[in-house]
Amino acid sequence: MELLNKKEYAIPIFILFVFFMFYKPVICFLILGLLTTIIGIKYWIFIVDIQKNGIESIGKILFYESDEDGYKTPTIEFKTKNGIQINKKPYYYSSTDLSKIKTYKNKINESVSVLYDKKNPKKFVLENERNFNYFSLILITLAGIVFLTAGILSLLEIIIIDF
User: 69, 73, 87, 101: most buried, per Cβ within 10 A?
Assistant: First the structure.
């Protein structure tokens, strides 16, 4: 999601999206599909790499923070092998609708296994979330591919998407 957090990328993408929304809306499918696919693949590569080359450590959950939609993400504290203390949210964490209503009070101060990137220890994931991370990334990437395919097929006039 770093791509969309940088203004030098986010503003031009937003302007293009708004322009094509009025000029040729099917291009919005391509933009949305391309962004979603790129983000899914980027995080997929990170997860695969960290599973192979990541360094394992034991951390503890300090607290859960809700975003504007109510999804909760844990803040984890752990030490690297070099003794660097990290207090941060995981680099990739996927919440479900169930996290909106759960309190997670029983999870506070619970020990968790983390895998961190040896080059940048602030990039880490929770080891026990591995399967759910893969599942969520498959869904994100497939959604992006569906939007890309619909956009391409519509541009080639194989299907007609009416707005």
Answer: 73
- Does 43 fall in a domain? yes
Angle of helix 26-53 versus helix 130-155 axis, rounded to 10: 150
Q: Is residue 161 part of a domain?
A: no
* pLDDT value of position 106: 79
Domain boundaries, position 98: 2-155
Mean pLDDT lowest among 33-47, 66-80, 100-114 = 100-114
Q: State how many domains the chain has.
A: 1
Determine the Cα–Cα distance for residues 115 and 60; give it in Å rounded to an integer. Answer: 13
User: Quick one: what percent of the chain has pLDDT higher than 90?
Assistant: 67
Classify residue 83 as left (phi > 0), alpha (psi -120 to 50) or beta.
left
- Two tokens, residue 46: 């990170």
Q: Beta 72-79 vs 111-116: how paired, if at all?
A: unpaired
